[in-house]
Amino acid sequence: MSTSNLLNHGYDVDEDDQDFDTGHLDQDAEGEPDDEAPPAGGQPDDDDEEDDEEDDEEDDEDDEDDDLPQRKRARRPPRNQFLDIEADVSDEDEEDPDEDEEDGAEAGFIADDADRPELSDLRQYPRDDHRHRELDRKHEAEQAEDMEQIAAGFKERHGRSARRRMEDSQVVPRRLLLPSVNDPSIWGVKCKPGKEREIVFSILRKQEELANTKTPLQITSAFERGNTMPGYIYVEAKKQADVMHALQGVSFVYPMTKMILVPIKEMPDLLFVMKKAEITPGTWVRFKRGKYQGDLAQVENVLASGLEVKIRMVPRLDYGNGTDVDDPSGSKRKRNPFGKSGSLAGRPPQRLFSEVEARKNHAKYLSQTSQGMKKLFTYLGDEYEDGYYIKDVKLNLIQTENVNPTLEEVSKFASGGDDGTESLDLHALAQSLKKTISTYQVGDTVEVYDGEQNGLVGRAVSVHGDIVTLDVLEGPLKGKRTEVPFKGLRKRFNPGDHVKVTGGSRFRDEVGMVLRINEDRVTLISDVGMTEITVFSKDLREASESGGMETGGKYDLHDLVQLDATTVACVTKVDRESVRIIDQQGNIRTIMPSQIASKLSNRRPNVATDRNGSEIRVGDTVKETGGETRSGVILHIFRSFAFLHNREETSNAGVFVCRTGNVATIAAKGGRITTNQSTGPDLTKMNPAMQRNGRSPDASAIPPPRTGGRDKTLGQTVTIRQGPYKGLVGIVKDATDTTARVELHTKNKIVTIEKVKLGFKDLHTGAIKPYQDFMRPGGRGDGGGYSRSPSMSSDRPSSWGGSRSPQSNFSGPRTPAYSLGNKTPAWLSSNDGSRTPGYFPGSKTPAYGMDGSRSSYAGNKTPAWNPSSRTPYASDTDRSTWDAGSKTPGRPSLDSFMDSNSTSANPSNNNSSYSARTPGASYNASSPDFIPPSYSSKELSAPTPGGPISAPTPSALSAPTPGPISAPTPRDAYGGAWGGPETAPTPAPYGAAPTPGASGSYGGGGASGGGSRDPRGGYYQGAPTPAAGYGNPRTPGVWAGGDDDEIRYAEPTTP
Amino acid sequence: MSGGSNFVAPGQYRHLRACMVCSVVQTQQKFIKDGCPNCEDYLNFRGQPDFVDDCTSPVFEGLITLRDPKNSWVAKWQRLDGYRKGVYAVKVSGNLPVEASEMLAAHNIEYRPRDGSDINQD
């Protein structure tokens, strides 16, 4: 049953009523009503019941309302029977009339039943009838009230039922909906990120499947929050077990892991939604996909649904260039070149649409329509307006947040105009940038330009989020402190202010003077470029420094910078707005500093291996093994590339790139020892001397005399003569047989060095002696003589030339002498000064050859000298003997020289010494030695012979003898040389003096030093000279000789 | 709604749309075929693809599968109590067309957008 039935019934009743009405006066009397009455009386009852049932069905809450009418009906019957009135009521709205009429009908019928007798009476007594009518009217009034109540009740009921769903939700504010303990709990369950939706639908399916089984899901709901809470889904249920049940068998969700019971307080947060910023025309957005990915676009229009927008972009078209022109499928053509949508590398650059270019290849795909002033093109199905690409896109294809357009990008949208900046809608840009970062800093002078406090000027004292607290500087509020939101603020400058661009544009770090201010756009003139720049005031700060060119400050010459993930480059030039770089491929480019991703600092040592497998580091000197075989110092190593720098290269500031595999180490920084097997150039092999020595490094050499007890070298001041620390001075802190630990004066560092590489400084004389000599007993102190000898020699220069050569020759002989000790010593001596090279070579064959004079020498000497001296050399064993012999003579001479020399006058000495020396010289070994000594003193000459004689002779015996013999002769020659360099050389002087000297010395032999000395004295005059001559060549010869000599000398002397 | 299962296979997700009025989520096809389970009485979606397009949105966030609208707090909070079981969105973006708003008004239904814009109203 429904209301429609009710209505019908009501209608029936109505009819009845009418009948009744009409018959009221005429027919009723007939008693027909009797027939009608029973059914009528029965029906209303039924109706009532049904009505109630319906009400119950419709709304349980309305029980009370339903009861009311019943009571009324119960009351009514006795009172009222008039139907006209009911009929009037029936004019009211549909639903009410139902009831009314029903009631009326019921009432009427019931009344009829009950009052029938009265009715008949009434007919008989019309007046009574009148009274009744009055009564009825009263009832009617009363009833009308009731009816209204009822109507209101019904209205309420029906109205509510019609609107129920919406009304409930609208009426109750959310804060009343906050969850309580009676609500189901929510559990958060981990799941596979990205699969949230799938899981929700899986749960839905499961729920539908089990809906009509014995075990339906007991959860009330399940939901996910997608991007807000990825990796979680939430299930709302009374019990945790229900959650487990619901999630069992669902893929991608992990109910076995820890389930989180969401605290009641946090439940609303789970469903919190935030409205996205409204997109309005003019907003900057970024395109998300395809060819235009990442490109800035401007919203032209937002479609009604808010889900689609029309955007404007700078097109990237290639106008069919490079593709088959006849291929009509434009879209395909466009897609193919950039088919790999992931790679944006190959896409055409952003350029405004060009009608000309489009016509060239694609005239048939181009159509033009004009809309007022604007030119509208349709090209390959896309629309272009004023050169821009116009496109309708779905909202999800564009990025609307964090767009952060840069001025460069935006300037592409500047319509025409020479001065792009001005025609820009900078205001729109400012708005879109506004939300980015707070650019206000404490101390900025700011101006309020919006809102109630418009016009206020103040100095920012603190900045918190969006709120700037400022001290008002001007106006009535001066001195007050107020807070202003960020958006109504702008920085304030005055023309003439010196400002610096702090961010946001490519003018960053530019410093200049404010020219004019237009709202929040400030035009300034750059200090450096003298160009006008327009920027937002928010990007400016007062500049403390003046005119600094800050762009360059970030990158320096030779910096290693990162350009992109795979490219690094070395800065070769820094300009004001650009940086010139050479990248790892050797490409040379000029780029903007903004294109540099970052500067790479060489924090950890970068190590690579060179071609030979030895390690190379920054700072090493390497050489290309191929190509131009350039060499250079490593500036940077990046993976397998090395950036080298060579001062002599002119291009690229001397920077070039090569692969580390293509270089070989020349010198490692700091003399780092390359691995033993390293195949870097072996310096020892290059050095002939070393090589010789190399054969029997120590074996052939006479080991330094060993002394027991404390190592003599301890505490000595030494210079390092070889190796990475060469030239440094230090003190021996500790020593073993072969090595010493030297504390360097300079580096405050202790290094371990072989003793033979050390030079020992003589405490008294300051002379430096090689280790060998140092260790030799008595060796000390002699050095001094030597050193002097050179000085002596200096006097003679002119004549020297010739004379020297002999000396060199001498040295030759000496060498052997040296070598006697050890060749090493010779080395050492060489180390001392200039000697090294000259020395050896000199002493040895090469030296001879070297000087022109010598060669001539050779002529003279060669015969004598060479044979003798060399011979010994040749055979190691011999040498020793030689050396011994040769030195001996030399030394003594030295010593004697030394002493005497100092006192004596050079020239005279020299002369004399010459003669004397000669003899010494004749000794081969000794002679050189002698010579030096000879310088120093008159006596020298004498000693020499003596010295040599004594020692040499014996040892020399075998070898020496010949030596001397042969030698002398040349010496004579020398002598001549000395006397009158070239011409004189001849024999005379020499011959005379030397021979005797020599012989004398010999004769004297080692027997007595004293004796020998005397002769020296005698010789002296003759001898010295030569010695002096030696002096010149001194360095090598003298020293060496000296050293050797000293030792021996000393010995003899002492006794 | 009589229309059987509300399940949607992952492949169909891109056709999903959410009713801007009640936030129910179903495929576009289902909207056209069966209408909106809650709003069909006021907005006649059935057989009107264009109207469906206008009044539903493909841009929505957060999916709720509602099994027991009467007892669920989530439903209450989302003002989904009284709705049918099914899948709903937490947030629906988009603007309801004017005609639709008028139709709702004619039924004394106040439209509350579900795009989060009313968040500050309570």
TrEMBL record, chain A:
Keywords assigned: mRNA processing, Nucleus, Transcription
Sequence ranges of Polar residues compositional bias: 853-874
Compositionally biased intervals (Gly residues): 1000-1012
Superkingdom of origin: Eukaryota
Residue stretches of biased makeup (Basic and acidic residues): 113-142
Compositionally biased residues, Low complexity: 787-808, 900-915, 948-960, 980-999
GO CC list: chromatin; DSIF complex
Keyword Transit peptide part of the UniProt annotation: no
InterPro entries per UniProt: KOW (IPR005824), KOW_Spt5_1 (IPR041973), KOW_Spt5_2 (IPR041975), KOW_Spt5_3 (IPR041976), KOW_Spt5_4 (IPR041977), KOW_Spt5_5 (IPR041978), KOWx_Spt5 (IPR057936), NGN-domain (IPR005100)
GO molecular function: mRNA binding
Domain Spt5 C-terminal per the UniProt entry, residue ranges: 812-996
Gene3D superfamilies found in the cross-reference section: 2.30.30.30, NusG, N-terminal domain (3.30.70.940)
Limits of the NusG-like N-terminal domain: 183-274
Main location per the UniProt record: nucleus
PANTHER family for the chain: SUPPRESSOR OF TY 5, TRANSCRIPTION ELONGATION FACTOR SPT5
Subunit-structure text: Component of the SPT4-SPT5 complex. Interacts with RNA polymerase II.
Name recorded for this polypeptide: Transcription elongation factor SPT5
Organism: Tuber borchii (White truffle)
From TrEMBL, chain B:
One GO BP annotation of this record: regulation of DNA-templated transcription
Any one Gene Ontology cellular component term annotated for this protein: DSIF complex
Location of the Spt4/RpoE2 zinc finger domain: 16-93
Cross-referenced Pfam families: Spt4
CDD domains registered for this protein in UniProt: Spt4
Keyword Transmembrane helix: no
An annotated Gene Ontology molecular function: RNA polymerase II complex binding
Keyword set, alphabetical order: Centromere, Nucleus, Transcription
Record has Nucleus as a keyword: yes
Cellular localisation: Chromosome, Centromere; Nucleus
Function text: The SPT4-SPT5 complex mediates both activation and inhibition of transcription elongation, and plays a role in pre-mRNA processing. This complex seems to be important for the stability of the RNA polymerase II elongation machinery on the chromatin template but not for the inherent ability of this machinery to translocate down the gene.
Family under the similarity heading: Belongs to the SPT4 family.
Protein name in UniProt: Transcription elongation factor SPT4
Origin species: Tuber borchii (White truffle)
